[in-house]
Write a structure and sequence with these properties.
about 375 residues; mainly alpha; two-stranded parallel sheet; two-stranded antiparallel ribbon
Amino acid sequence: MLGYCSKGTRNPVKILQRIDVILECLNRRLIIIFEDIDRNTNDATLYNEIASFLNAAKRLNRISFIIAVGPDERASAMLAKLCEHNEYLQKIHKNQLIGIFEKLISYLYDESYPDDELFQEYDAVVNFLGIPRNSMEEKISDYSGRENPIDYIVQLLDKPRHLKIYVRIIRRKWDRLHGEIDFKTLLLLSVIEAATPEAYIFIYNNIRALRNITQALSSGNQADDDNKRTALLKKWEEATQDVFWDKQAAYRIICTLFPALRTQQEDRVISYLLNEGTLQGLVDNSVSNYYKRFNQERIPPGDIKDQPIIRAIKKWKEDHYATSYMCDDGTRLKLSDAIFEIEGMDDKVEQFAFCCRIFAFRLSHYSCRTTKVAVKRQPI
């Protein structure tokens, strides 16, 4: 039918007029949706072309149009003149958004994968975000002026479109990476990806510099730190010119993920930081590159999964001789054998044994390279 209607003309209005006649005969209607036109080239010509097309299409009886567009002065003027009905979606109220966010966290972290070995309880995640548990905590937070990650999240996800995208992203990523990346990091970085694409590209382009300056700060090396920070902030300003989202809120989230980017004057407003000591976080990539995991939404080839190691360590505490580690092919090994037979296993075991105080020191001692030869000669 489309081939017949477009025969002899490339004028979209004439094509639609022919389709309109056919729909009239069939007693049917056609609805065409223009979605997110504000995400296209930010050019006045685009809006003029759309306005001209809609004005010409007003004479169609069986074809209707739905236009979804963000808040823009040019778009608002065009819609007011040409559309028969306008509906404005209000921003989501802070308390409502916090309620949605809390239920989402509860489902993903506490209910979706109950067999995962996670390092923090659900309450610890809620405390990290600064979600008030009652009206009293909410009043104390408002009066103190102390900002928490949830405040930045609310400022960036207060539009239905951004919240919908965020829920879709974080559910997909957690389904693929549950237990294989720090959940708090996943929450915050998903906000950046969903609501602030320019900020996400900034992280992607400068991930190495953001890691280096944070690691240098934590080690006490202050040499050239100010110059590196200044260079990064200059790139940040260039990357976020003329953005429509809350630039300051996105910057605060990035500072939480990479603490060294903040200045000393900002310490009082950032309550929680994810630094190189954050297990399965972004800053330390000496053992596994968790940013790559987030970006690719999978465990990179050659990388060792965390969950089998954590389960094996817990079983090792109960029985040192148990075949507690399950390989990808389904075979089981004693943890001591896995340390020596699998490349990189010693580093992974050491990572979790040292960072998690619940694990015995003896295990981390076995995993050290300096004891490998001796232990191999006289097996555990």
